[in-house]
TrEMBL record:
<feature type="transmembrane region" description="Helical">
    <location>
        <begin position="158"/>
        <end position="179"/>
    </location>
</feature>
<feature type="transmembrane region" description="Helical">
    <location>
        <begin position="98"/>
        <end position="117"/>
    </location>
</feature>
<feature type="transmembrane region" description="Helical">
    <location>
        <begin position="129"/>
        <end position="146"/>
    </location>
</feature>
<dbReference type="GO" id="GO:0016020">
    <property type="term" value="C:membrane"/>
</dbReference>
<feature type="transmembrane region" description="Helical">
    <location>
        <begin position="191"/>
        <end position="213"/>
    </location>
</feature>
<keyword id="KW-0813">Transport</keyword>
<feature type="transmembrane region" description="Helical">
    <location>
        <begin position="279"/>
        <end position="304"/>
    </location>
</feature>
<dbReference type="GO" id="GO:0022857">
    <property type="term" value="F:transmembrane transporter activity"/>
</dbReference>
<keyword id="KW-1133">Transmembrane helix</keyword>
<feature type="transmembrane region" description="Helical">
    <location>
        <begin position="71"/>
        <end position="91"/>
    </location>
</feature>
<keyword id="KW-0472">Membrane</keyword>
<dbReference type="InterPro" id="IPR011701">
    <property type="entry name" value="MFS"/>
</dbReference>
<dbReference type="Pfam" id="PF07690">
    <property type="entry name" value="MFS_1"/>
</dbReference>
<dbReference type="InterPro" id="IPR020846">
    <property type="entry name" value="MFS_dom"/>
</dbReference>
<keyword id="KW-0812">Transmembrane</keyword>
<dbReference type="InterPro" id="IPR036259">
    <property type="entry name" value="MFS_trans_sf"/>
</dbReference>
<protein>
    <recommendedName>
        <fullName>Major facilitator superfamily (MFS) profile domain-containing protein</fullName>
    </recommendedName>
</protein>
Length: 330
């Protein structure tokens, strides 16, 4: 296996025992992926519930106009850009369970505390902090998934993971409409109920992540090292708790190929290591955020690209032709 293939396959391909691979896949499919999907839906709820709050009179209650609301949203995106890469560096140091769980806990608290906003300054500061807290969640979650699946498996799981965003976008307005009916209950306005309930929900999800998001190394040692069958590597390869050298960060930032114009699949396929892939995906999210890319169109293009890459690479494996990654390099 060449270095690119090894990196793409995620951390799980060194396990040659089908029983171990099957166990990893079950844990990933029934624990890791569902937990991250729900967290993504919560992330999307907290990011977009401002629309439902505005419907409930939020802007007039804190005496701001639409221009101020737009500025607040841009400050939130700026926060995401500023801490996107540092967030992924921390993820590698302390592991996905604790970092992603803590991240969701923090932006859940911030989302809930928006019920106390009273003026323009409070709104702008809160939106800025919310963006800082959310920075790195998407590439961090994608990196975590890449540690559990092979190259053949990861594309489909990433697509499923992004259904969390669709779910949050779809459920948010419906939930907001219901919560607005609580206007006046408990001396809270309808928009305050939106921030409070959805923030508490996100906090609940964060505790679930902290308690139940598995560490991959815990599922890799069914044998004592001296009794392990030939070909089985018993050492846990928990790369999610490794340091990312500054050299890797600088090389990724300065590599012009890293700014490939068509989304993240190319990054996934051509990264030389999990650390480089993590920073590369973070760069992609930064660029998408900075460019104010239309979310829906971006997802449509991403999904289309995943299909094209899958078909071409599958054909290349069968017929011996070049993969799209090789064509892009050429």
């Amino acid at each position: 296996m060449n270095p690119n293939d090894e990196a793409l396959a995620g951390d799980a391909t060194h396990l040659t025992d089908p029983k171990i691979q099957s166990r990893l896949r079950k844990v990933a499919d029934f624990q890791v992926l569902p937990l991250l999907l729900v967290a993504f839906a919560s992330y999307q709820l907290d990011r977009t519930n401002i629309s439902s709050a505005l419907t409930g009179g939020f802007a007039s209650a804190i005496s701001v106009d639409q221009n101020t609301v737009n500025i607040g949203n841009q400050l939130m995106f700026l926060g995401v850009i500023v801490l996107e890469i540092p967030s992924n560096v921390i993820l590698h140091r302390i592991g996905p369970r604790y970092w992603i769980g803590a991240q969701v806990l923090i932006f859940g608290f911030i989302a809930a505390l928006q019920i106390f906003i009273r003026n323009r300054t409070g709104f702008l500061v809160t939106r800025s902090i919310l963006g800082l807290a959310e920075a790195g969640f998407i590439p961090g979650a994608m990196f975590t998934l890449s540690q559990w699946y092979t190259r053949e498996e990861i594309t489909r799981r990433i697509a499923i993971f992004f259904f969390g965003m669709f779910g949050g976008t779809a459920v948010g307005p419906l939930l907001g409409a219901g919560l607005l009916r609580l206007d006046g209950m408990g001396n809270l306005s309808g928009w305050q109920w939106i921030f409070l309930v959805e923030g508490i929900w996100t906090i609940t999800v964060s505790f679930t992540l902290l308690l139940f998001l598995p560490e991959r190394g815990n599922y890799e040692q069914p044998f004592e090292p001296e009794k392990a069958p030939e070909g089985i590597d018993c050492a846990p390869k928990n790369l999610s708790r490794s340091k990312i050298p500054l050299k890797v960060i600088l090389e990724t930032l300065t590599n012009v190929i890293g700014y490939h114009p068509i989304h993240n699949a190319w990054i996934q396929m051509n990264s030389r290591s999990p650390e480089e892939r993590s920073i590369g995906v973070a760069m992609f999210v930064m660029c998408a955020t900075a460019g104010l890319m239309a979310v829906l169109m971006g997802l449509i293009l991403t999904a289309l690209q995943e299909v094209i890459y899958y078909v071409q690479n599958h054909r290349a494996e069968k017929e011996g032709g070049p993969t799209l990654a090789e064509l892009n390099i050429l």
